[in-house]
Amino acid sequence: LSLSLSLTALTFLCFNFCFKESFQSLQSTAQDSSDMMPKPQKDSHVFCRVNKPVGTLQLSDEGDDTISLERGDTIIVRYQPVASLVDNDTVSLL
Question: Which element (helix H / strand E) includes 81?
Fold first, then answer.
């Protein structure tokens, strides 16, 4: 038991000495960054929740595919049509 505790204490001290600065740097980077998740590819499909009423959203460049989005709606849609709405927090990715 004594040897086990000594090894545990030694491991902790080595870890603390060797990696403490790295983890503090990583932690401060995480706190400074507001966007830790990479953005999806434009043509991939995403789950979204609508935070603010949008009205009619055009889903394709041709303009014939549209959807009406109201606050509280949850949808699956290609990322490209909602990308600007995600950027201004009108829509959240789930």
Answer: helix 79-87
